[in-house]
Amino acid sequence: MVKIADIKVGQVIKNEFNLITRDLLKKYAKASGDTNPIHTNDVVAERAGLKGVIAHGLFSYGFITKLFEDFLNHEKDGKLIKTDVDMRGMVRCGDLLITEATVTKIEGKRVFFDMKQKTITNIDIKKDGNVVKQFEAGERGYVTDKDVARGLVKSKDVNEGILSYREKIVTPGTAIVELYN
After folding, report:
1. Neighbours of 92 (CB within 10 A)
2. pLDDT in the model for residue 139
3. Which domains does the chain have, with CATH numbers?
4. What is the pTM of this model?
5. Is-contact 116 16, C-beta < 8 A?
6. Which of 20, 65, 86, 112 is the most buried (most CB within 10 A)?
7. What is the 3-state secondary structure (H, E, C) of 112-163?
């Protein structure tokens, strides 16, 4: 049970989703009724200049509302009053989607959050300067020179070598929840 007395400014709630696939986007398209082929067909997405399919905006937004739904125990402990987001970037197959909200203020039973949703997009793994594994982002050119110039492309050691990846905030925003206790 979430109680207002247990919430602190600076507290972070977070979820991660790492299973974005074309099959999942096709299922979402069918369920949502948004059958725009840029979400399900690489050829059409490429013709539109996207280098491959992208997730529906409401698909990724759903993980924002899910974060608060889980936090509020499916409205047993409170309700989501408001979200305000700015969808700035694309979410693609293979991305790790991380949704995070930080408590910024508490007024009465209302809790205010700054939110961000970011993607971790694997590009490739290199060993001794040679690519030993390339991910879809590397194959399709999802990561741009602009991403590199902005410092969004990073690397880290992994078992197979050095992993290059992009870490990008795709949806910043705010939220307000109201707790019952």
Report:
1. 23
2. 95
3. 4-20+55-179 (3.10.129.10)
4. 0.94
5. no
6. 20
7. EEEEEEEEEEEEEEEECCEEEEECHHHHHCCCCHHHHHCCCEEEEEECCEEE
